[in-house]
Specification:
373 residues; Rossmann fold; Fumarate Reductase Iron-sulfur Protein, Chain B, domain 2; 16 helices; 44% helix
C-alpha cells in the first residue's frame, strides 16, 4: 500500500461522495477557482496526487469544508498528513516573513536562554502553583510585526491582569517554548514532538493542575494533539474563556460601563476545531455598554483570516482578509474583535495595506479595559 493510500484509509477519505460541498464552502476556492478540495481527494483516490504538488499548501486547514461535509471527512487532517509526507520528501510550503517565525521555533528546540517574560512588568506571577498561563509566541510577535502595532504583548499583559483580578497568580515561565502548532500543520512532526516534550517537562515540573491558554492554536494543540502523541496529560488544558465564565458567574469580576458597537470574528482553531462559540459572545454581552452585532457569516460559518502557520500568504489571503473586514464594517460596528493573536495580526496587516476604517481589537484588551479594580 502506498503512503497516500494509507492516509486515505486512515482518514476514511474514501467515503467522499464527490458532491463538491467542500469546494463550494472553501474560502480559497472562491478566490482561486483552480483550488478544489474535492479534486485533491479525487486525485488522491486515483493515486494521482503527488507530495510535490503545491496545492496542499494552499489549504487554510480552516475546517469550513469539514463541518459541512455530508460524509464527515476530516479534510484538514488529511491535508496535515499529506504535508507530513511532502515534508519527509523535501517539499514544503513557502514561509512568510522570510521564515523568521520558523527560525525562532528552531532556536527554541535548543538549549537556549530566553527573555520571554520581559513583558510582565507589574503583573503578579508565581514560580510554582496550580495554574500555569501558557503565553504562546505572543512575546515574539510584537518584535516582528512592530510596523502594524500587533498588540500581542499588550494582549498577554491584559490576560495576566484579568487572571490577577480573579485572584490567580499563575506560573509564567521564561523557559516556555512554542506549542508546536505550526510545525505540526506544516508537516514537521519531529519538530512538533521536540517542542511538545520540552513544554510537557516544564509544566509538570511547575506542579500545575490547570494550564490556561488565550491562544486558540495553543489550546487546540494541547487539548487534542498532545494526548494523541504523548498519552494522558497530568494537567487540564483550559481556555481562558471557560476559566472566566466560571469567575463571572461567581461574581469574582465586574465591569465598568463603556459604550461600543463591536462584531466578533470566530478564529478557526477556537471555533470550528475546538467548538468554542458561545463563551466569547457571553463574555462580550456581560460587559455593560457593549453592543454585539453578528456578521452574516459567523460561528461555524465564520470565514478564516486568510492564512495560517506563517506559510503561503498570497494575494488570495489578502482578498479573503479585505472581504472579511468589509463584512465586519457593513454590520455598522466600529470594532472587529478577535480572540486570536494571529487573526489580529493578519487583519491589522490588511487594514494597513488597504487603508480600511474598521478598528481591530483583542477580546482581552476590551475586557481588561473595563475591569472594575
Amino acid at each position: 500500500m502506498t503512503a497516500i493510500a494509507e492516509l486515505i484509509d486512515l482518514t476514511k477519505t474514501y467515503f467522499c461522495l464527490d458532491c463538491g460541498v467542500c469546494t463550494g464552502s472553501c474560502p480559497v476556492a472562491r478566490v482561486f477557482p483552480d483550488f478544489s478540495p474535492r479534486q485533491i481527494i479525487e486525485r488522491s483516490l486515483y493515486e494521482l496526487e503527488e507530495p510535490s504538488d503545491d496545492t496542499i499548501w494552499n489549504c487554510l486547514t480552516c475546517a469550513q469544508c469539514s463541518v459541512r461535509c455530508p460524509a464527515g471527512i476530516d479534510f484538514p487532517e488529511f491535508v496535515r498528513l499529506m504535508r507530513d509526507e511532502a515534508h519527509a520528501l523535501g517539499f514544503d510550503g513557502v514561509p512568510t516573513h522570510n521564515g523568521m517565525l520558523q527560525t525562532i521555533t528552531d532556536i527554541q528546540m535548543q538549549d537556549v536562554v530566553q527573555n520571554r517574560n520581559f513583558w510582565i512588568e507589574d503583573g503578579k506571577t508565581a514560580d510554582k502553583g496550580d495554574v500555569f498561563y501558557f503565553v504562546g509566541c505572543r512575546p515574539y510577535f510584537d518584535v516582528i510585526f512592530r510596523d502594524i502595532n500587533a498588540g500581542s504583548i499588550k494582549g498577554a499583559q491584559n490576560v495576566l491582569k484579568i487572571l490577577n483580578c480573579c485572584g490567580v497568580e499563575p506560573v509564567v515561565s521564561n523557559e516556555e517554548r512554542c506549542c508546536g502548532h505550526d510545525a505540526l500543520w506544516n508537516g514537521n512532526e519531529e519538530k512538533f514532538k521536540q517542542l511538545a516534550q520540552l513544554n510537557l517537562g516544564l509544566i509538570r515540573a511547575s506542579g500545575a493542575k490547570q494550564v490556561v491558554f488565550s491562544c486558540p492554536e495553543g489550546y487546540h494543540t494541547f487539548k487534542n494533539f498532545y494526548p494523541k502523541y504523548f498519552g494522558d496529560l497530568d494537567f487540564e488544558p483550559i481556555h481562558v474563556l471557560d476559566f472566566l465564565a466560571d469567575k463571572i458567574s461567581a461574581g469574582a469580576i465586574e465591569f465598568e460601563e463603556k459604550e461600543e458597537v463591536v462584531t466578533y470574528h470566530d478564529p478557526c482553531r477556537l471555533g470550528r476545531l475546538a467548538g468554542v462559540y458561545d463563551a466569547p459572545r457571553k463574555l462580550l454581552e456581560s460587559i455593560p455598554g457593549i453592543e454585539l452585532r453578528e456578521m452574516p457569516r459567523s460561528r461555524e460559518n465564520g470565514v478564516c483570516c486568510g492564512t495560517t502557520c506563517w506559510t503561503n500568504c498570497s494575494s488570495c489571503s489578502k482578498e479573503i482578509q479585505v472581504e472579511r473586514l468589509t463584512e465586519a464594517s457593513n454590520t455598522g460596528a466600529g470594532t472587529l474583535v478577535t480572540a486570536c493573536p494571529k487573526c489580529q495580526i493578519h487583519f491589522r496587516c490588511a487594514k494597513a495595506a488597504f487603508d480600511l476604517e474598521i478598528e481591530i481589537n483583542d477580546l482581552y484588551d476590551i475586557v481588561a479595559d473595563r475591569l472594575k479594580v
